[in-house]
Design a protein that fits this description.
Chain lengths: ~120, ~90
Amino acid sequence: MGTLMIGILTRPYGSSNWNFVINLAKAAIEKGHKVKIWCSGDATYILKKKQKEFARKYHYEPKIKELIEKGVEIVGCESCHLMRGISEEDFIEGITSKPMTWFFENLLKADKVLFIGEE
Amino acid sequence: MTFAILIHSLNFDPEIFERLNLEDMRIVLVQDGVYHATIENSPIFNKNAKIYVLEEDLIARGIKKEEIKKDIEIINYSKLVDLIMQEFDKIVWY
């Protein structure tokens, strides 16, 4: 088994990239791999708790919680979330904030890396 | 080295794509990129690359297996994880 690092910059709403990331992370963790997701840029908006569901569209919070329960490590870029006025108290439980150095360290340690940019 | 390109949209810059030439190239069609699997003269067929298409995204778009062109392999997320972890050396989101 290996470690898959997924980095993502895409905003959660208005793009399907997060659907892909969530499904891929779920499939990988269920196969016994370690999975880390690094959220930077507008992707940090997905870290916020109290997301409201509107007609079952793009409601990510429960899916993110499920990944965390399954053991996926989800990390927010410290400068990116603070820049957007999002503090760690706003985070869905289990998500952590780390500086960019964490990303580079874990990038080099990962077996495979997939980075998804902005839409 | 196995280089995998994950194509996630219908319209991408064919010029840049044209310049991507590697010995062992793989193309994985995901999200709206799956439409390329139904288009006869899509630029993806100009490459000497094995092509995969993600089943979950075909179903989400109502695309039937019979509409898929040439010998494109239909895979699911579980198989994609195996390809990423066991076969692909480098992966690009395109």
